[in-house]
Amino acid sequence: LETNTSVKEIFLSSTSIGNVGANALARSLKINKTLEELTLNGSNVGAEGALSLSEALKVNSTLAILRLLVYAGHGFGDTAASAFGDALTVNDTLLMLELPCAANWDLARGLQANHTLQVLHVHCDDRSLADF
To answer: SUPFAM superfamilies attached here (predicted)?
Structure first.
């Protein structure tokens, strides 16, 4: 993926790539100049993998869509939500972001600073966004 110049979309939903796979994808995203869409819904990515992907968003200049939902109501926690908030303050190519329930002020500050994101889906099963 680091040297690939033709793949624009990767869908790895409902796989078992986990944090190891997410970390590898994040390393590649820091270099790749072609990928526009990455879907990892239900792929057992935890907080560690989410943190790696958020760091990649800070330097990647082509990814427009990132879907990173976790099934069964599990989220990444506030640390990962904060990291995505930080990434949104500097990323200017992401148009759509899907995350598990991640309501915190750092994510909100990132949204306030970002002027390119058009769609944010924050999926919550058992937690309210009232604190947003």
So the answer is: RNI-like
CA distance 124 to 128: 7
Domain borders along the chain are: 9-123
Q: Please return the burial class of 6, using the count of CB atoms within 10 Å of its CB with bins 0-12, 13-18 and 19+.
A: exposed
**How far apart are alpha carbons 84 and 110 in whole angstroms?**
8
Say whether pLDDT at 132 is over 70.
no
Over the chain, what is the mean pLDDT?
Answer: 87
Picking from 12, 79, 16, 10, the residue whose alpha carbon sits closest to that of residue 44 is: 16
Enumerate the β-bridge partners of residue 38: 10, 66
Interval 89-117: pLDDT, tens: 999 999 999 988 765 677 888 889 999 99
Q: Is residue 114 within 8 Å of 85, Cβ to Cβ? A: no
